[in-house]
Amino acid sequence: MEWEVVIGLETHTQLKTNTKIFSGASTTYGAEPNTQACEVSIALPGVLPVLNKEAVNCAIKFGLAIHADIAPRSVFARKNYFYPDLPKGYQISQYELPVVGKGAVTIQVPAVGKNAAYEKAINITRAHLEEDAGKSVHGAVEGMSGIDLNRAGTPLLEIVTEPDMRSAAEAVAYAKKLHELVQWIGICDGNMQEGSFRCDVNVSVRPKGTEKLGTRREIKNLNSFKFMQQAIEYETRWQIETLEDGGTIQQATVLFNPDTGETRAMRSKEEANDYRYFPDPDLLPLEITEADKARIQAEMPELPEAMKARFESQFGLTSYDAATLTADRALADYFVAVVNAGAEAKPAANWVMGAISAKLNAEEKSLAASPVGAESLAALIKRITDNTISNNAAKQVFEAMWNGEGEVDAIIEAKGLKQVSDTGAIEAIIDEVLAANAAMVEEFKAGKEKAFNALVGQAMKASKGKANPAQVNEVLKRKLGA
Fold this sequence. Notes:
Keywords: ATP-binding, Ligase, Nucleotide-binding, Protein biosynthesis, Transferase. By secondary structure, this protein is α+β, with helices and mostly antiparallel strands. It has three domains: about 5-290, no CATH class; about 300-415, no CATH class; about 425-480, Arc Repressor Mutant, subunit A (Orthogonal Bundle), CATH 1.10.10. It is built from 15 helices and 15 strands. It has helices at about 55-65, 170-185, 225-245, 290-300, 305-315, 320-325, 330-340, 345-365, 375-385, 390-400, 410-415, 425-435, 440-445, 450-460, 470-480; strands at about 5-15, 75, 75-80, 90-95, 105-110, 120-130, 135-140, 145-150, 155-160, 195-205, 215-220, 250-255, 260-270, 280, 285. Strands 5-6-9-1-10-11-12-13 form an eight-stranded mixed sheet. Strand 7 (about 135-140) and strand 8 (about 145-150) form a beta hairpin. Helix 9 packs antiparallel against helix 10 (about 390-400) and helix 13 (about 440-445) runs antiparallel to helix 14 (about 450-460).
């Protein structure tokens, strides 16, 4: 039997606010345990929640970015369950009336094996505001567990998809696209190691060609794209093997162990009625007006798809180049800065996607930490364009710039890399080469094209690599009557 995997994602995105969603306590990461747990965070009797307006603005931005329905009226509810890091005994969330309704995110799924790359729209069911819980800390004191409530009340936007994905590759492509988008519009810092972007993945399998969904298992708190891929692939194999062996799948919440590459059941999966949702009596309904949406829309940056289209039309870039540059806002902004500093668009794109990206990846640096700024890179590209230096010399100049040896012109002068473009000087070099390589000349005249390339090489060698290659070719052809 041929099986089909069905995947849906729930992503907890920590919103980029200075304070918590229902109190003025700080959301700064890394503070000493419980130093950011205010009266609201620890649920002292009589305290009341007050909604953080910036968290609402972040939710509206996301809704606009995915062209979703934004509810004019949404309601906060109490999601009731007991856990030690949840002091109130309930989480304030949204259930029946979320702030963001149906929308979509278009993903690019890369080629895998014989399967070509393709584009696919992933439908978003909803995105709702809620508060984060605290954190259980095990082993800080030998034989004991502790509770850190610093995270309690941190604002989250939970983004829920339809079960539209059919492979681990699609799920990872969606998670990466969402990760890029929330950073692009400035609502999340995207730091997965700190828990700012966490994915729960619902996985089920069914016989291919059937419509009925299989029983799903939810893999909790994946904070790495690599682990997500591994977890989905393992869970898919496990479910298929279980069914083919005559077993049944029980709905459950599971955890992924990166050390073993396996998932294991943590608890049976709760249903909505287990949480006894009801509207929170301490919070008024959230009302969003058309004026609110218009104000936020005016503050929105140009979105990746629009910028990609503009790069293609304005700068003449290929679809691939434009997509690569707009995959990250910092990269796109850097490219634009290079072009604005006077570099031609295509060479600028090549250098940004090539040498700059390679160096940053190798040294695990962000663009903000690049030793070569946009203006410096533009100056280097201009020296290639005006034939001051060759492409090979430019690589040497770039290395020197990266290592902090100075600016473009000073490095070219210090290293003697200026290209010889004087026609008279190049003709003199070629005359010497032709005189010294009569056999190669005869071979070329006899129809051997490789001899021409050999003569070009000899001319470049004689000029110590400084001669303009295009002029060398031109003069050599003229003198050989080619």
